[in-house]
Amino acid sequence: MHDDRVDVVVVGSGNAALCAAIAARESGARVLVLEKAPADMAGGNSKYTAGAMRFVYRGNGDLIPLLRDPADPRLERTDFGSYTAETFGADLLGFNDGRPLSREQQALIEGSYDALRWLASHDVKFEPIYARQSFEKDGRFVFWGGLTLAAQHEGVGLVEAELTAFLRLGGEIRYEHAVTDLLTEGNTVRGVRFETASGETGEIRAGAVVLGSGGFEANREMRRRYMGENMAAARVRGTPFNTGIGLQLAFAQGAEPHGLYENGHATPMDLHTPEYGNLDLPHDERKHYRKICYFLGVMVNARGERFVDEGRDFRNYTYAQFGRAVLEQPGHVAWQIFDAKVDPLLYAEYRFHDAHFVEAETLDALIEKLDGVEDKAKLRQTLAIYNAAVDDSVPFDPTVKDGRGTKGLALPKSNWAQRLDQGPFKAYPVTGGITFTYGGLQVGETGGVVHAEGHEIPGLYACGELVGGVFFNGYPGGSGLTSGAVFGRRAGTGAARFAGMGTEAAAA
C-alpha cells in the first residue's frame, strides 16, 4: 500500500487519454496516467487503428503545417480537395437517422482542425494516406472521401508520438495499474483506488480525475446487454482491456447513460481473425484482418443473398456499419466476391499472407467451393441477376461516386457496379469485428461528466469512447480519433483548471 498526490489522474493511455494528459500538463498540472495494461499492450484501441483523422480543412495549404514531411515531392501533383464544416456536418447527419447534429457533433466539427494543429505543435505530425485514400488519375493523386492524413506508423505511431510529447512535458505514466474505484469527498471526486498486476492496492489523491479508459467493446456481457446477441458474437478488433470500467465508475457517482448504446463501430473482418487484436504483429500487418473493399464487388450471406448496397457510398462511410450487417447474417458470416478486373484495386489486406479466400476460373466453380453457403442455386441466381442489372452505359471511376449502378434490383448497388465476368474469381469469408461502442456519458463544455440530475460531477471528467452522443448509426471514417483529440484536450484542460492549475499557473 502506498499513497500519492497529484493534480490530475488520467485513467487510460490511448489517444484521447494522452491528449487529456498533454493538455493538463501544458496547463501546469502535475499529471499521472494510470494504465491497466502492461507497457507492450498499452495505448487502448488507438494502437490498433490505421491512424487516420478526419478534420475540416480548406485546401492543401491547411495540411502543410500538419505534415511530417512537407517536402514530399508527391505533394506537387496531389489534389487533396477541401473538407468544409458543412460537409463534415452532412456526413455525420447521414448516420443520425433523422436526428439533428448533436452538441457533441458540433463540438467535434468546430474543434477538429484546431486539435490537429495543437497536436502538430507537440510534434505529433501526419502523412498523406496515398495508399488507401487516393487514386492516381491523369498523373495526379486525387484524394476522395474527405479523409487525407494519418499518423506515421498508423495508430501505434500516433500513440507513441503522443506519449513522447506527454513525457517530454514532464508527465508520468504507470503501467499495470488498474483503477478499481473513485475516491470522493462529499460529492467531489478526489482521486482513485488502484490494483497492480501483482495484487498491490493503493490510492492516488488528485484534484481531478479524467476517465479515458475506452468503451465496453471487450466486455461480452455488456455487449449482450446493450447491443444484443449478434454483437455479443463479434470479434474484438482492439484491446482486451476496454471492459467498461470507466462507465461503471461514473454510474456509481450518479452519471446517466448518454448516446446510443445499442450501436457501435463494427467492420467486416477475415472470418479467421483472432478473438482480439494482436499487437505482436507489425503495425502494417494488424490492419490486414480488415476486409473493406466490398464496394468493388458483391457481398453475400449463407443463403446466397446480397444484404447491403455495397456501393451506397465511399467505404469510409459504410464500413463501420457493414460489420454489424455481417454479424446479423446467418452464422455471423458473409463472402465478398470479386473478379479479375478489380483484383489490382484490392487493398493490401486482400494479399496479406494470412488472408483467407477461395479462387476459381469460373463463377460456378467458385460457388462450389463456398462450403458455408446453404443454397448454392440461390447464389447462382443472385449473381446472374446482379450481372444482368449492371448499367454498362456509365463509366467506372473509383475516385468519385460514379453513379454506375444496377437497374431494377430491390437492393441496388448504387456505385461502382461491374459485372462479375472475368476470371479468375475470388471469394473472401468475413465476419464482423467491433472497434468501439457509441454509448457513453454526457460531458459539459469543459469535459466534466454530467450527473443524472443535470449538474456536472465535481472533479470528474471524461473523453474518448466514454463521450456519448458523438456517433449514432455509424460514422465517417477517421472521426473517432479526431473526437478523442477534441474531447481529450477539452477534458484535460478542464480537469487542470478544476484542480487549481489554470492558465495563470501555467504562465507562471
Automatic annotation (TrEMBL):
Source organism, top-level taxon: Bacteria
Domain FAD-dependent oxidoreductase 2 FAD-binding: residue ranges: 7-479
Keyword Flavoprotein listed: yes
Transmembrane segments: none
InterPro entries given in the database record: FAD-dep_OxRdtase_2_FAD-bd, FAD-oxidoreductase_2, FAD/NAD-bd_sf, Succ_DH/fumarate_Rdtase_cat_sf
One annotated GO molecular function: oxidoreductase activity
Record key words, sorted: FAD, Flavoprotein, Oxidoreductase
Essential cofactor(s): FAD
Keyword Oxidoreductase: yes
Name the UniProt record assigns to this protein: Tricarballylate dehydrogenase
Species in which this protein is naturally found: Aureimonas jatrophae
